[in-house]
Design a protein that fits this description.
With about 240 residues, the protein is of the alpha/beta class. It has seven helices and seven strands. Helix 1 (about 15-25) runs parallel beside helix 2 (about 35-50). The structure holds NADP nicotinamide-adenine-dinucleotide phosphate.
Length: about 240
């Protein structure tokens, strides 16, 4: 039987990359998408080193036509999609009303919110066929208001909670399950987008990408009749 197929956006770094390795260890064939092909290839090499099956599909998730083309290639290659991990995300240092630009606001909402809908929409027929599972990597800021997260980012991640709920409410009859995953601070490159970039000591107190990957693997491995609606995961030091 063909292995279950997991399509990961934001798979070239951080939580998406760590999830790729963890899922491959659990037997998933992994498809990696993100804009930087070199980063995807590095993660693919790590997956192969674990004996995993992996395909690299460079993609800008805000390009709906490219998303559909990628979906078609995945189905041509594997014939199925059993899971999505949607980790592609964006923030900007200029995130307050006083300094934000509308171009940045659009880019954050396009990447964090609209693109999640775009990828789920593209994969939905395949997910219905497989009784698939969707893990939407949202944020602590999508679960509780975080003053520093930014105007666009807070809005973009808060919206994911209702996107996941509508998906669960309307697609449960097809066996599709979705999780609103809300991590607190995680030591990844994403932190470089903060107005004040955390130092190494601060990053050591944060969650590590592998912590989140272990949680995602738990959700992916749950039996088909089990749905994890929402999960908040934070470092002990999170305030
Ligand atoms: N780090 C944290 O503290 C934290 C906390 C809560 C939630 N999050 C969320 O977790 C998710 C993963 O972030 P991370 O912390 O693992 O940081 P990361 O390593 O910076 O990962 C973000 C990924 O998104 C990809 N990406 C961005 N724009 C894209 C686009 N238009 N098309 C395709 N891929 C795109 C990036 O790859 P390319 O640049 O190559 O496209 C990158 O691999 C994000 O959604 C973020 O909002 C992060």
């Amino acid at each position: 039987m063909t292995a279950k197929v997991l399509w990961i956006t934001g798979g070239g770094s951080g939580m998406g990359a760590a999830t790729a390795v963890a899922a491959a260890r659990d037997g998933w064939a992994v498809v990696l998408s993100g804009r930087r092909a070199d980063r995807l290839e590095q993660v693919a090499a790590a997956v192969r080193a674990e004996g995993g099956t992996v395909t690299v599909e460079p993609l800008d998730v805000t390009d709906a036509a490219a998303v559909a083309d990628t979906r078609d290639r995945v189905l041509d290659q594997y014939g199925r999609i059993d899971g999505l991990v949607l980790a592609a995300g964006l923030n900007t240092p200029a995130r307050r009303w006083a300094d934000q630009s509308l171009a940045d606001v659009r880019a954050v909402l396009d990447t964090n919110t609209t693109a999640v809908v775009t990828v789920v929409d593209a994969a939905l027929p395949a997910l219905r066929a497989s009784g698939g599972v969707v893990v939407v990597v949202s944020s602590y800021a999508g679960w509780s208001f975080q003053p520093g997260a930014g105007v666009a980012y807070s809005a973009s991640k808060t919206a994911l909670g209702s996107i996941v709920r509508t998906l669960n409410q309307q697609e449960a009859e097809h066996g599709v399950r979705a999780t609103h995953l809300c991590p607190g601070d995680v030591a990844t490159d994403f932190l470089d987008q903060r107005p004040e970039v955390p130092d190494a000591a601060a990053r050591r107190r944060m969650l590590q990408p592998e912590d989140v990957a272990g949680t995602v693997a738990f959700v992916l491995g749950a039996p088909a009749h089990v749905r994890v609606d929402e999960l908040v995961l934070s470092p002990v030091a999170q305030r």
